[in-house]
């Protein structure tokens, strides 16, 4: 693929232990990691390998995004799930989108309007948290159970494994292979993806996902030194106040004798 397209893959606990160094050496530049799944009330069950996958990918130098499998059946539950997810990913460097995975058959009876509102509620909450929001679904699910025209403000990460398909402009990422996908460092099949946008650069430019052009979202060392200096000054001030208090107490005791 041409230079403006980045190759990656997505994983969950079902992929087992991943050797991310080998994945990086195989030419992959990013990974979308499953955070878990949300229940009907918006609570999240964390993927058993989420933390390990996030740390391992970062240590190998891979860019990372996250996705949450959705069972939420109301807009309120979707907002709660998004808020819970933002708290969950806060400790990690996330330079690719935060995606809502809409594909479960149990949601289909809700109808296009309700499902579209559920997706919008989740993705808006993610954007309110200053993260890059993306909708993941299959090409068939998008057109059969959602109203695509009402979701164009967001990027789409589309799963379509048909050979020879041409990605559409709205697609930020394309999952182009599933159970036949292979990556060195991953045992067994895994989903293969490509990205059509330089998400890390976009996030840094606009200060999304806790990133900025000045750094990767980590505290600035000069700011830390300034905070330490202020704390030391405050400690000295409290030390002086404590000494004066002790002197006053001694005078009171001496006077009372």
Quickly describe the structure.
By secondary structure, the chain is an alpha/beta fold. The protein has 7 helices and 9 strands, in the order E-H-E-E-H-E-H-E-H-E-H-E-E-E-H-H. It is globular.
Describe what this molecule looks like in 3D.
With about 260 residues, the protein is of the alpha/beta class. It has two domains: about 5-210, Alpha-Beta Barrel (TIM Barrel), CATH 3.20.20.80; about 220-255. The protein is built from seven helices and nine strands, in the order E-H-E-E-H-E-H-E-H-E-H-E-E-E-H-H. The chain has an eight-stranded mixed barrel with strand order 1-2-4-5-6-7-8-9, surrounded by four helices. The N and C termini lie far apart (about 90 Å). About 40% of the residues are buried.
Write the layout of secondary structure elements.
Elements (H helix, E strand, L loop, with lengths): L5 E6 L8 H6 L4 E9 L5 E3 L3 H10 L3 E8 L4 H15 L8 E4 L10 H17 L4 E6 H7 L9 E5 L11 E7 L13 E5 L3 H8 L14 H36 L1
Parallel strand pairs: 1-2, 2-4, 4-5, 5-6, 6-7, 7-8
Antiparallel strand pairs: 1-9, 2-3, 8-9
Helix pairs in contact: 3-4
CATH superfamily of the largest domain: Glycosidases
Q: Tally the helices: what do you get?
A: 7
What CATH architecture label of the largest domain applies? Answer: Alpha-Beta Barrel
Query: Which strand order does the major sheet show?
Result: 1-2-4-5-6-7-8-9
Described by strand count, sense and barrel closure, the largest sheet is: 8 strands, mixed, barrel
Tell me the radius of gyration: 24 Å
- The low-confidence runs, each spanning 5 or more residues with pLDDT under 50, are 215-225
Number of strands: 9
> What class do helices, strands and sheet pairing give?
alpha/beta
Mean pLDDT: 88
How much of the sequence lies in strands comes to 15-25%
Order of helices and strands: EHEEHEHEHEHEEEHH
* CATH top level assignment of the largest domain: Alpha Beta
What is the percent of helical residues?
25-40%
Distance between the termini: 91 Å
Overall 3D shape: globular
Number of domains: 2
> Under CATH, the topology of the largest domain is which?
TIM Barrel
């Amino acid at each position: 693929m041409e230079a403006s397209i980045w190759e990656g893959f997505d994983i969950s606990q079902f992929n087992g232990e991943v050797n991310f160094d080998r994945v990086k050496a195989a030419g992959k530049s990013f990974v979308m990691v499953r955070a878990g799944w949300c229940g009907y009330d918006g609570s999240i069950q964390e993927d058993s390998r989420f933390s390990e996958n996030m740390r391992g990918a970062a240590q190998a130098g891979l860019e990372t995004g996250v996705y949450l499998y959705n069972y939420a059946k109301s807009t309120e539950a979707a907002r709660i799930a998004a808020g819970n997810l933002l708290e969950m990913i806060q400790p990690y460097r996330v330079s690719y989108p935060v995606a809502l995975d809409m594909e479960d058959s149990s949601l289909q009876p809700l109808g296009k309007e309700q499902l579209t509102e559920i997706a919008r509620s989740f993705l808006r909450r993610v954007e309110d948290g200053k993260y890059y929001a993306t909708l993941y679904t299959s090409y068939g699910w998008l057109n059969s159970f959602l109203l695509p025209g009402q979701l164009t403000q967001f990027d789409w990460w589309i799963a379509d494994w048909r050979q020879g398909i041409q990605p559409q402009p709205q697609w930020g990422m394309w999952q182009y292979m599933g159970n036949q996908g292979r990556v060195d460092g991953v045992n067994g099949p895994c989903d293969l993806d490509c990205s059509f946008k330089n998400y890390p650069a976009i996030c840094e430019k606009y200060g999304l996902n806790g990133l900025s052009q000045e750094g990767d979202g980590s505290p600035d060392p000069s700011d830390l030194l300034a905070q330490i200096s202020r704390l030391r000054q405050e400690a000295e001030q409290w030390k002086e106040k404590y000494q004066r208090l002790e002197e006053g107490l001694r005078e009171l005791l001496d006077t009372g004798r």
